[in-house]
Amino acid sequence: xxxxxxxxxxxxxxxxxxxxxxxxxxxxxxxxxxxxxxxxxxxxxxxxxxxxxxxxxxxxxxxxxxxxxxxxxxxxxxxxxxxxxxxxxxxxxxxxxxxxxxxxxxxxxxxxxxxxxxxxxxxxxxxxxxxxxxxxxxxxxxxxxxxxxxxxxxxxxxxxxxxxxxxxxxxxxxxxxxxxxxxxxxxxxxxxxxxxxxxxxxxxxxxxxxxxxxxxxxxxxxxxxxxxxxxxxxxxxxxxxxxxxxxxxxxxxxxxxxxxxxxxxxxxxxxxxxxxxxxxxxxxxxxxxxxxxxxxxxxxxxxxxxxxxxxxxxxxxxxxxxxxxxxxxxxxxxxxxxxxxxxxxxxxxxxxxxxxxxxxxxxxxxxxxxxxxxxxxxxxxxxxxxxxxxxxxxxxxxxxxxxxxxxxxxxxxxxxxxxxxxxxxxxxxxxxxxxxxxxxxxxxxxxxxxxxxxxxxxxxxxxxxxxxxxxxxxxxxxxxxxxxxxxxxxxxxxxxxxxxxxxxxxxxxxxxxxxxxxxxxxxxxxxxxxxxxxxxxxxxxxxxxxxxxxxxxxxxxxxxxxxxxxxxxxxxxxxxxxxxxxxxxxxxxxxxxxxxxxxxxxxxxxxxxxxxxxxxxxxxxxxxxxxxxxxxxxxxxxxxxxx
Length: 643
What we know:
This protein is 45% helix and 16% strand. With 643 residues, the chain is α+β, with helices and mostly antiparallel strands.
């Protein structure tokens, strides 16, 4: 929806600087700009659309800049920063709230008269009437929120339960900076960019750094579901963590298709047209089908897809099947090798993190296509795999630790070896199996290229996250863990690639109700018809045996709509022809004439990496490819941000 930056401090930030820090994220909100100066200790507030209209009153030591993407209540009543009716508090809010009717009705009982229809105003007035804890437990949606209460001299920052919307903070020479993107923090002249090598081991192993850390020293991301309080002395306190708050696992009798329809209906709340990102996979295809079914017949739903010349990677056939019998216009974008390589630095700049998932580039081009077609909001199927166990690793870990199979493995070691190879870990400990199941690179290779590499250091923060999850059932705990770790990298990718073009991405599968459904045993049960069709499919497609028994609740819905061939096929996961791209003449030249020169600025072994590179060019080894991708994307990111 938007982007904002707030500087809190005893040392005043100039109008020129806060304007610069806001302008660097203009892509997030090109429709309207707003600024505010305030004294976080005394409570004085001055607000203007144009920062030049606010005098450089340095007694007002704190300031905020806002970039608005107008989606709900496009009038000036929705502009931000928004000051409350009592003129004593204000809000900066990025995201969307989907249960505004509930909140509005509760406010109406207190005789509130709202100035407009934006969710921003409802959040602000609800906070002042019912307090921060009631607000944080009542709102449903995706958000990063800054709230200032001048009467109590308190500041609150909140992030949604799933971490759909990013929110960062940093302490820069006594000033606390809170921002929707790291770029705003980097604009501060007293912030010095340095790689956070304390979590470099984790990055090398997983290609992502889990919250609250980032790969930039001194910059932190707010953990999903966090509520933080900052007092007038700028002391930070984590008030509560709402990640698993208010989850009700009582038996739900609502059919899953009705829950999908309800969530999509809430995600369609908008005063602008909404489209869908359609990859051709089950999740986005279900989103497309149900969105089309609940929108008026006159409404021509626009869907957007990435395809390739190489049929091994292109999902065009399945995309066509997904939109058959729907009132849908599908727009396709083909990515060439040259476009892929040319975009690496731009994508790294917007992601603010080394490109961990190659298909991030696909989403970048998809967002560009969406913007060109005049669409500001798109739905995607992100989150379904984590909630409903859609990756094969969920099944492998479940089976590897099943008591009967454990007994078999005792006598047939070669069978256990199959699972070990699939899971990237030899650990007998189920906790570490779960934690390491999303790792990309093995410890032996990492020790060769990074002398100080430590597996324990790589797992340290993830073990803390895992231990703090309240769950005794390992199958459920595994999914909760992935929502707080692996999914975070996917959500960051979705938000920043789309917002690079002023497009908001919404994720209907990530709601409190879907979390409850995914943890309920009722929806995972396999009926006879599903089992019968699955066995027939396995008989003719034996390589799909694992895929048939992952993400069962959603596949039962897909089976009824799209049939067995569509539903049970092998998962592709928006795959890219990375090996082909990395071994192309253009990329080889780029790597050998630029990237290897950047290696000298890092603690990585240039000699060892050169050997791996040469071997990859000859043998095209998958393991080498994964490691080289990690290294090259780190070097590109370093070059982009160290300038």
